[in-house]
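note to self: dont lose this again. the chain is below, predicted strucutre after it. 303 aa total, dont forget to put it in the shared folder this time
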Amino acid sequence: SKLTNLGHLEMTWRSRVHFHPLLVRILHKSRLRYYGKPEKKMDMPYQAYFEVADGSGMMSMVLWNSLCPEWYHSMKVGTVLLLAKYAIKSSYPFKTHPTPGDSQMKRFATIEICLNVRDPPTEISIIPEEMVKPEWGLPEVKYRFITRSELDDLPHNHSCDVIGLVTFVGRAERARKREHSEDFWLYRWAHAIDGTSDQPFILELFATSQPDVFEHIHPMTYLVCTQMRVMTENPSRTVYLTTSNESQIFITGWHKGQPYTKDAKVKNFIQWTKSQSEADQIKKTVIGGYYPFPRPPDSFLKY
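---
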């Protein structure tokens, strides 16, 4: 059928009601958001957004309500979609934005694609990777992997991706989302090493929409975390990484077929793990327990 592209949509969306189909690749994926309220009677108050791209640039795409349980898990980073009968509206101004792996890519930030059950009922098709043709001009997924030796030089709030061998994972803990709120964030601390430094990555991993991965992080697994943010603890200058709204977490058993497996730094890490003795590494691993971070000073005088 006749296709349109994101650049053309941005120029013509105000003058149209119906749009030609779109062919896009998912580059980023947010966690699933529940926005239900007791006084509002909605069947499935869910929302998730994705950053999708074609040859002309990148745009946000929002999946609404009952389409979320139906499609959210099938729409992975790297998936190619054919979309028809979607809606276009002005962007929500307070949304978080992931840092694109390709800094040269044009971003269309004024509008977003809305996928709804009705008004209009969106038609979504997933194109298998083996059927994707080079002439479609869809961009590849790109990453910003760093090694542990590079971390200390990065500025606060910098966005990056990491891979490491887990040496410690703490118990799941809860923090209130807001004071006096009944809602909690679930998170756990982990350490991962990649052979480039004596120090591990210190990772604050909030539960994303991947409970099957979050609950099975354990020592000796290969852990990949994308779209992490660098946090610098003052005055100790301790650096750790925390998840963002667009973070994805993968462990051993989930890596096959993921786009990052082609990344040079990921390949280097795999080479390093082959040179390590599993028995020696297991001796250094720890699981569970309370992990106070940032660590309190040695004495009251230092407070």
